[in-house]
Write a structure and sequence with these properties.
Elements (H helix, E strand, L loop, with lengths): L11 H26 L7 H13 L2 H30 L6 H20 L5 H26 L9 H21 L5 H6 L11 H27 L5 H16 L18
C-alpha cells in the first residue's frame, strides 16, 4: 500500500505521484469553486487578508465569513489528522479514509449544485465552507504522508523554495561541467533525473505545474459542463484510493539511491 508509508519510508516516485495528482485536484477545485461561488478555497492567505481588511474597515459580516472560512480549513486539517490516527490505531490503511471523505464532500457538493441548478444565494457560503474543509483535509493528509515534503493547496512557499532550488541546480550544473565544451555539458542533462541533489527542484516544479494544469482543466471543464466539472477531481481521488489498495511497492522504490532524504 504505497500511500500508507510515511516520511522517509516513501520513495521519490511516490511523492511525485502524490504531488502531481493532489496538486492538480487542488487547482481544479480552486478554479471550479471560483467560477461557481466566487471564492478561493484551497488556501488561507487571501482569506486571512480579507479578515484583516474587514476588521480594519469595520465590516463585521465579511470578517465573520472570512474567519469561518479560515476555521473551516483548520477543521479539515484536524479531521484528516484524527482519521489518520484512528486508522493507525485500528490497523487500517491510514490515508484511504481521508481521501474517501474528501471524495464524498466533493461529490455531495457536485450533486447539490447540479440537482438544484447551482447553490442558492444563501447556500453559497455553506458550500464554500465545505470546500475549505475538503482542501484543509487534503493538505493535512499530503503533509502527513510525505513528511512535510509535499504541500499541494498553496504555492507561495513552494515558489520560494523552487527559486532557491533553481539556483542550486545552476550551481550544480556549472560545477559539474566546469571547463567542458557545450556538447559535453549537454550530456550532463541525462543524469539530472537520477541526481539526488536535484530531486527537490523536480518535486517543486511538478507541484507548481500540476496546480496550474488543474486550474486550466477545471476552468475549461466548468465552461463546458458547469458544476459537473467537479467529477474530474473526484475521479482522481478515487484512482488514488484504488492505487493504494491494489498496487505493490516496486523494488526500485525501495532502493536508497532512488529515495534521497528530501527534508529541508
Amino acid at each position: 500500500m504505497p500511500l500508507s508509508r510515511e516520511g522517509k519510508e516513501r520513495s521519490f516516485r511516490e511523492n511525485v505521484l502524490l504531488a502531481f495528482s493532489l496538486a492538480g485536484v487542488a487547482g481544479a477545485v480552486n478554479a471550479i469553486g471560483l467560477a461557481e461561488l466566487g471564492v478561493l478555497t484551497s488556501h488561507v492567505t487571501g482569506t486571512a487578508t480579507r479578515l484583516g481588511v474587514a476588521l480594519g474597515s469595520g465590516g463585521w459580516l465579511d470578517a465573520g465569513r472570512a474567519f469561518a472560512l479560515l476555521m473551516a480549513f483548520v477543521l479539515g486539517a484536524m479531521s484528516a489528522t484524527l482519521l489518520i490516527e484512528f486508522a493507525k490505531r485500528t490497523h487500517h490503511p491510514r490515508f484511504q479514509l481521508p481521501l474517501l471523505v474528501e471524495t464524498v464532500l466533493l461529490t455531495a457538493l457536485t450533486l447539490l449544485a447540479t440537482l438544484t441548478d447551482g447553490p442558492r444565494t444563501e447556500g453559497v457560503f455553506a458550500v464554500a465552507l465545505a470546500l475549505s474543509v475538503a482542501m484543509g483535509l487534503q493538505n493535512a493528509l499530503v503533509t502527513r504522508v510525505s513528511g512535510a515534503v509535499v504541500r499541494t493547496t498553496h504555492l507561495t512557499g513552494l515558489a520560494t523554495d523552487l527559486g532557491i532550488e533553481l539556483v542550486r541546480v545552476g550551481a550544480w550544473f556549472f560545477d559539474r561541467t566546469r571547463g567542458e565544451c557545450l556538447l559535453d555539458r549537454l550530456r550532463h542533462v541525462a543524469v539530472v533525473r537520477r541526481d539526488p541533489e536535484l530531486y527537490r527542484a523536480r518535486l517543486h516544479a511538478t507541484i507548481l505545474c500540476s496546480f496550474v494544469l488543474g486550474c486550466v482543466v477545471g476552468s475549461v471543464a466548468y465552461a463546458l459542463v458547469g458544476a459537473l466539472a467537479m467529477t474530474l477531481p473526484v475521479c482522481v481521488l478515487l484512482a488514488l484510493v484504488a492505487y493504494d489498495r491494489h498496487l505493490a511497492v516496486s523494488d526500485e522504490d525501495l532502493d536508497d539511491d532512488f529515495n534521497p532524504d528530501l527534508s529541508p
